[in-house]
Task: structure prediction
Amino acid sequence: MTPQRRLRVAVVFGGRSTEHAISCISAGSVLRALDREAFDVVPVGITREGRWVLAADDPERLQITAGVLPEVPDADGALVLAGDPTNRELVVTEPGQVPRDLGDVDVVFPLLHGPFGEDGTIQGLLELAGVPYVGSGVLASAAGMDKAVAKTLLAAAGLAQAPHVVITDRQWVTDAAAALARVRDRLTLPVFVKPSRAGSSVGISKVKDWSHLEAAVVAARTHDPKVVVEAGLVGREIECGVLDREDGSGPEASVCAEIKVRGDHEFYDFEAKYLDDVTELDVPADLPVDVSERVRALACAAFDALGCEDYARVDFFLTDDDQVFVNEVNTIPGFTPISMFPRMWRASGLEYPALVNRLIHSSLRKRRGLR
Result:
């Protein structure tokens, strides 16, 4: 009797965004957790310049070492996945060599954070290629990546958010003074200035004096020409993980978690998340049962409002009078060892390897194309 072939899983990581290193760290954790008796794993790295390469299957290379962030090294060859649904083969091309076929891919696990990966771009390529993949489709991925668009969809679903102002590239280039005046007229200090399409708190500034607003917008625009300015809310930072139920009946939420930032960091910025030991993560969060259930229900509502699939992490602010405001929906949440998403599901009874396995099989059950 011929033994059953293992599922071939391509783990894709790195990429052209400022979150390249965090993507590598997430991938290292997933590579470490994958059951090699059940899956044939193909690590696919994307360099900072956008080259696809066959990466080493070595999770140890994909972690922070002595404060140095990992990255995908360039290589002489390139990896190619044709956008052809009749041919799912990964092909390695090397200078002076005959192209080498790695065989068909059964499912792709994209762990690309930020633009050119989390934003619907790789999802579009995989849709064209007819390859199943973990995570949300093109529209939900693009909407979740773009804070301005996500806020519009969440507002249409009746979900409360902090007051905000969007500054587009055209508005800034044609009349920056008017854009700044609009922020001052509509919001009160402090405000948070964010690139509209970035994550891991990259490029975010907290502004406590209007004289610093212009510099904060300029800093955010180095990451994205579209900027979102949000009113600062006083309250607790709460997160909740969401998974599609295995029976297809809709989303379910994990326990809630809380982020507490200590020391000199005024908010949960990049250094607080990944480099400095100043963050306290409470999993599960110390919340009244009714508040916790309300947050979990809102997390599922936000998941549905954007049309998410498979999994997402929803971030909230909880004020002192127990009002809950949606902050962001992350369609490819971090999978690093300290990331909240796997920690919340572990606290909910789903261990990391089982979570990865569930996501892969969830992606295989989805209908391809329009859905």
About this structure: The mean pLDDT is 89. Residues 169-186 form the longest helix (18 residues). The first strand starts at residue 7 and ends at 14. The domain at 145-161+234-348+358-365 is CATH 3.30.470.20 (D-amino Acid Aminotransferase; Chain A, domain 1).
